[in-house]
Design goal:
With about 240 residues, the chain is an alpha/beta fold. It contains seven helices and twelve strands.
């Protein structure tokens, strides 16, 4: 589903390596959490996968489409195609929600599907009901709590049925209780939709919910084991 091979990215000012020969494979419907120190390149990695930034080397492919690098695949994306690729294949959940103040909850969630021309009102209704926000459909953004807004952001990321969700600190602006609820819903909804999920987080409580837990350290991904009362997570994901 998502394959990254020998990815490289350096700091623009100093040329020092930020991501160095990073490899990652995420299967369809699989969830992966990535932790690491501030400034280690976690958000940059998501930006590279989303096509917002261009790598210095290596390959990134989603669903067999090579969106960056030197892949020999015949269907390598050109720069002009990246925006269409994001609309078709990606859903992005931002830490700051990135919702539109002038829209109500329903229109915020429908926005990406409308851009794609893939509006499905019945699916959106079901998704909002699953996330517990259907009663908020006609409410303006100003009347929604932080947790409610983040649920809307998750619904917006999923409503056009993407193959892959990228979530950058999706609970970073939420209190502990709301963070627990929202992160549970994010992982649960992606699993039920058979959508792959890559989530960057500082929270171990969020990280342990993923099928595979990784840490970005010195430019590469390392498997992590988290021992909790209920489980020990070790990563089945290819990372080096």
């Amino acid at each position: 589903m998502l394959t990254i091979k020998d990815l490289k990215k350096s700091f623009s000012k100093t040329g020092a390596p930020l991501i160095n020969n990073l490899n990652l494979t995420v299967k369809t419907g699989e969830s992966v959490s990535i932790q690491g120190a501030s400034g280690c390149g976690k958000s940059t990695l998501l930006s590279l996968i989303a096509g917002f930034e261009t790598p210095d080397g290596g390959d990134i492919s989603v669903n067999g489409l090579s969106i960056a690098g030197n892949s020999k695949l015949d269907n390598t994306f050109k720069a002009k195609d990246i925006d269409s690729f994001r609309k078709q294949h990606l859903g992005i959940v931002f830490q700051s929600f990135n919702l539109f103040d002038c829209f109500n909850a329903w229109d915020n969630i429908a926005f990406t599907a409308r851009l794609k021309g893939n509006v499905d009102n019945d699916y959106q209704l079901a998704l909002m009901e699953q996330l517990g926000i259907l009663p908020l459909a006609q409410k303006p953004l100003s009347q929604l709590s932080g947790g409610e807004q983040q649920r809307c952001a998750i619904a917006r990321a999923l409503v056009h049925r993407p193959s892959l969700i990228l979530a950058d600190e999706p609970t970073g602006n939420l209190d502990e209780t709301t963070s627990e609820t929202v992160s549970d819903l994010l992982f649960k909804t992606c699993k039920e939709a058979n959508t792959s999920l890559v989530v960057v987080t500082h929270s171990q409580d969020v990280a342990v919910k993923a099928d595979a837990a990784l840490r970005l350290h010195k430019g590469v991904l390392e498997s992590v084991k988290y021992k909790t009362k209920e489980q020990t997570l070790s990563s089945p994901v290819a990372a080096s």
